[in-house]
Amino acid sequence: MSTRSMSPGGALLRASRMFSLPAPLPAPKIDQGASIFHSETAMLPYPTHQVITTLNSSRERGDWGLKRPLPLRSTTKSTHPMLRVKAVDTAEQITDYASAADHGMTLKKFQELNMPVTILRTAGGGRIHTNDRTNVPRMSAFEDKLDKTHIPASKRAAAVEDRWRFEGPWLAGMSQGDFKTWLAEEVRPKRSQFRRFLKKKLAKEMSDKAAGKALDKAQELPDRIKAGSITDDQVTDYVRHLRTDNQALFEMVGEFLDLAPLKPPKPSHSAVGSQPVGSKFEFRDVNSPWAESGPPITHPSAGLSYLRTSMFLTNHPIYGPQMHQAAAEARILRLRRPGQVLGAKYGLAGFVVDAPMGDTSSNRQGQTVANLETFDPNLKGGAKTWVQPQSVLVNSSGHIMITVGDATPEVVLVTKELLGDAVCLDAPFAGPAEETASDLRARYKAADPPSMSSAEQYGL
Amino acid sequence: MSCRQWLSSAMRQCQSVLARPQPSRALSTSAPAAAGFKRTPSDTPSRPSGPAHRMAPRQPNHNAGLQGLVSEGMGRRGSAGPLSSEERRGMLGGRGRGSGEQARGDTRAHIQDMRQNTVTENYARQMPRRWRAGDAYSPRDLSPYEMGKWRKSRRPDGDVVDILGFNPVDNYKNFALISEFMTSAGRIKHSRETGLRPVNQRKMAKAIRRAIGMGLHPSVHKHPELLRFGSRQGNVAAVPSTSDPSQARL
């Protein structure tokens, strides 16, 4: 079947976000270690489809802005109308949709935490390691220096440490098989291109050298050497020279293939026995936050939160400014068992987090902590504990890593009071006054007519 | 006398004293749990009904506690294996001190601890998913239906030979690798279990046949070295060597 030619207006509509759903993201990779035991229907670590919603009045008519109205029975019952559309129209002439309340509600819960998304740098720019869970202020994912998306092609190589998007892969994250395939399919066809690239580099290097010499002798500057005048033999010699200088070679290859920065190996690892004679392995340190665990697959904030910092004071109407942000209640997902090395796991805002590291008051080591070690089936709603969210990071595979610490009893009390779960200044929480039917009627009469949906309603 | 024998004789004594075993309780999951968590002193003396009544306060008989322990153990300890040395010491201590109040309290607390542990383990077994930091979950993921899916093993998604990029035939000496693709009875695993694509499955099968044919690997069970390692914790599978000469050059 030949493809139908589309009118410019039609093409515009198809490409526009206003009228068409974005193409789904590729499904997250299942970790190889966990691939034997996994569920295909479990919630994905990040959404792959756009979540759509509609106004209540439209929902009652099945109107979701799609090609055909959706069945009322399965779309009108939920409190939060959120759907993901897998296919707007299929061969069977149906719209394939499913509930997207899982990711939609997770986003809402996450935004209630009031946490900015950070990257693996301290607020001052210092390095933090991937497994570092110390509570130091971290750099925002929106820091101007590192949050660049449009960089002209000529400046890409210079800005390699400030970028988070790269054309080439992150070599340390590739398996051997993937690496071989990549070499064969992507790299080998570019051989002649690479020689041309080297010619340019060599010409520039030689011109700079000649210019430097001329300057030293106070002579007139010679003409720049052109890449076309470099012979193949010269390039071959240059390649041989590069092979003895691993750092220069990696920089050349990295610039040519636009590889993501790599963390240099530790000195003990670089002393390999198979070192070629006459060469030495030297590595230049890189300062990119993505060198250690790979560049992110999305924007480093993943669009979860647009806050720039968590360094703000919350003000309490009675107690005044608070030292800490509000605490959050976390579900105890996995208990800490005496014989096991693995610690407890909490669920916070729909994400699995590690229990606070080390010997903290809620996670005391060497002692029995009742709610972390025993399961109480009589507890309604399951066991929960109060934590203080500290930092949020989107790792290179798109998982949301939240670091939590212990919440102090004062913070917990203040948070509970604000939620109406605890007494405030010895006065029991009164709750709303009893309303009579006439009050209700008056209230509904006085209410504004249903307004257009606000951005806040959609969790933005 | 082994621990089991000692327990059963203790149980026989208890039967004679109480003569009213409660088999239905031993099979229920939630009722003993409720008993285990009701530790408030007001519960035990005042209410004659309910499971907590079994350790009757009017009878200064520590055997009652033993009875509960044994029936508990018989009913719900899946393996019904011997008690750990610590538990046994606790029980013996309680017995040795006679019918003192202190001893009875100790035994009771200990039994409640054990009950709590059993309940915790039983429920933990219902949650086989290994949560990892960064996973997202919704209430549905905590449901028994969804949890059941994490219990059974599935065929691996990718072809491990392609992912690791090695040639199985060159690795016929790697007994850890060979054993991974054999059953414990020495048969070559089907590709529906290994997840290899046909080309790699044939290569792997050839490597296994070669290893067995050369006498490097037993044909009836796992390699003895692996059995020796198996008692230790940890993974012994070695990373297969790549024999591609181009790799050596890099």
TrEMBL record, chain A:
Tell me the superkingdom of the source: Eukaryota
Molecular functions per Gene Ontology: structural constituent of ribosome
Cite the entry's keywords alphabetically. Answer: Ribonucleoprotein, Ribosomal protein
Which Gene Ontology BP terms does the record give? mitochondrial translational initiation
> What name appears for this protein in its UniProt entry?
Mitochondrial ribosomal protein MRP51
Pfam families cross-referenced by the UniProt entry: Mit_ribos_Mrp51
Respond yes or no to whether keyword Ribosomal protein is given for this record. Answer: yes
Q: What is the lineage of its organism?
A: Eukaryota, Fungi, Dikarya, Ascomycota, Pezizomycotina
Question: What do the Gene Ontology cellular component annotations say?
Answer: mitochondrial small ribosomal subunit
Q: Does the keyword Plastid apply?
A: no
Automatic annotation (TrEMBL), chain B:
Which keywords belong to this entry? Ribonucleoprotein, Ribosomal protein
Which SUPFAM superfamilies does the record match to this protein? Ribosomal protein S18
What are its GO biological-process terms?
Answer: mitochondrial translation
What Gene Ontology cellular component terms go with this record?
A: mitochondrial small ribosomal subunit
List, alphabetically, the Pfam families matched: Ribosomal_S18 (PF01084)
Q: Name one GO molecular function term.
A: small ribosomal subunit rRNA binding
Q: Which domain of life is it from?
A: Eukaryota
Tell me the InterPro entries matching this sequence. Ribosomal_bS18, Ribosomal_bS18_sf
Gene3D superfamilies in the cross-refs = Ribosomal protein S18
Region called Disordered, residue ranges? 18-108
Q: What PANTHER family does its record include?
A: 30S RIBOSOMAL PROTEIN S18 (PTHR13479), SMALL RIBOSOMAL SUBUNIT PROTEIN BS18M (PTHR13479:SF40)
Q: Which family does it belong to?
A: Belongs to the bacterial ribosomal protein bS18 family.
* Protein name per the record: Small ribosomal subunit protein bS18m
According to its UniProt entry, this protein's organism is Staphylotrichum tortipilum
Species classification: Eukaryota, Fungi, Dikarya, Ascomycota, Pezizomycotina
